[in-house]
Amino acid sequence: MRVITTALAIVVGLFVLAGYFFQVGPLVELQVRLIDGAIIIAGMAILVGIFNLAAVQMEKFRARQKGGMYGILLVLSLVVTFGLGLIFGPENPYMRLTVEAIIIPVEASLMAILAVTLIYASIRLLRRRVDVMSVIFLVVALVFLFLMMPTPFGPIPGDRAMIDFLGMFSRGGARGLLIGIALGTLLTGLRVLFGVDRPYGGN
Fold first, then answer.
1. What is the DSSP letter of 196?
2. Residue ranges per domain, the chain?
């Protein structure tokens, strides 16, 4: 059975990969159908994961475990959001407003936690190892926080130019991370394609 699943995965991967290099009508159509099938399977897997999450949270509430009330709030929010999405559709302006009113504050809170965590991590790093890179890391993080935070006197003179200057380094780091992710994804795909890694049927 493992040989069959491995062979099937390799054949499907080769057909999808060949569709990008050889723009032949039947091959491209087969590629689109295979990708659509993978998207449907991934969507069903997400639904199964959501139902499993709801079941786990309900079981925590029934067992009166710590944090059970938060699980109930999560399940209720999930059911209400899913129901409203089915009724009004995801493109409804009120639906989008409701989602953005929740997502944007959550993202802002996460970014604030990330900023505080970076400062705390840099201070702990200085306590263990004092070198040029540690000092630069702490100084850049503090400068970014100082330039981005609002002041009662309006914007700081020259803060936009300083942010653009420091942004070159952050954009360079972000591009390096994206290149690393792309290379890792490519290597993982090749390992699955050659049957070295078999997440679909065990090793």
1. S
2. 1-89
